[in-house]
Amino acid sequence: xxxxxxxxxxxxxxxxxxxxxxxxxxxxxxxxxxxxxxxxxxxxxxxxxxxxxxxxxxxxxxxxxxxxxxxxxxxxxxxxxxxxxxxxxxxxxxxxxxxxxxxxxxxxxxxxxxxxxxxxxxxxxxxxxxxxxxxxxxxxxxxxxxxxxxxxxxxxxxxxxxxxxxxxxxxxxxxxxxxxxxxxxxxxxxxxxxxxxxxxxxxxxxxxxxxxxxxxxxxxxxxxxxxxxxxxxxxxxxxxxxxxxxxxxxxxxxxxxxxxxxxxxxxxxxxxxxxxxxxxxxxxxxxxxxxxxxxxxxxxxxxxxxxxxxxxxxxxxxxxxxxxxxxxxxxxxxxxxxxxxxxxxxxxxxxxxxxxxxxxxxxxxxxxxxxxxxxxxxxxxxxxxxxxxxxxxxxxxxxxxxxxxxxxxxxxxxxxxxxxxxxxxxxxxxxxxxxxxxxxxxxxxxx
Length: 447
What we know:
By secondary structure, this protein is α/β, with parallel strands linked by helices. It contains 19 helices and 14 strands. Strands 3-2-1-4-5-6-7-8 form an eight-stranded mixed sheet, with helices on both faces. Strands 11-10-9-12-13-14 form a six-stranded parallel sheet, covered by helices on one side. Helix 11 packs across helix 13 and helix 11 crosses helix 14 (295-307). The longest helix is centred in the middle third of the chain and has 32 residues, at 212-243.
């Protein structure tokens, strides 16, 4: 499998990673930067696609290119886990690798589902002669699923690592020094068997080890709480609109109370991406499995979906419904500033609504340009532009979906056209809002 690619490589032990997700890619790069050799097995087409979609992860991409085919060796995922395990236990592997042994297996569950059934890979690992090797699992599953898989694996050193710390746009650094490292252990107090991950654990701002079921529940609870805070502030933003109160100032005041804290209190169009929506869907699945009603969870999901259309309704009301055939400018398309992914972003329902009125859309989206181009390549009403102020004189309104706070908005250029600004991210400061010649409609804040 690997003998031709590893000529002259050092004899350090090998970490076998299985998956094509951004979590798998980040893990491979971080472990490689810590001096480990990596064998990464994945659907090569999906791995290439993932690398392209995360092109905005500049640090990660640079290191990947440096390590690929040297420290990180990529192979197509075999049809069965049994084939993979038998290779690493074979005499041919040990002859090719001299004294190099396998240090651990790391399974990224979302990536292997389409090729390996649970029964097949669990059976393969149970038939392995290397029962002392640690097996790590990562992924978002219904509550208790990973714990059940761990119990089916007939070995003691089984672990679960949820990627609650991974930051889109800063994947490498956020994994190298996690904000919160959670480790689920099948066997209590056994983290010493993950010596390879010791550096990551030590650099975590906070960490906690517990049984796998508890860590699964903690992971889901953390994500659900973050979604709850976002949806609560978005619901309050609507009341703030009716009271002529600036919700952004209210958020700052709330953050001063140490019982509340300041994170995830920003009103806007809601949350997107893959993690939070997937987490809520899995939590809902878990509640249905146990015949439990979770009305708060349902409300969070409903508020979030409805919030994505709120900025369009403000636009429609501003023009008293006379919006047909206009041209608008849209800044940003990713689900968060700094990312290039548009999964769950408000730009998708916004574009669909605008196009239903035959509205021409000029979109500047920096990191997300390529993804939007691929998704909407047959849409004549979409024009992707290379500068936020390009063709601004052709637009009758500006929408802001995601804008990095590091990029200063040029109010003077906006004022040359004196058009209304519909700020779905509340990106403008109060000083900028007051400096606008045209009208301003944010989420829970107006001019």
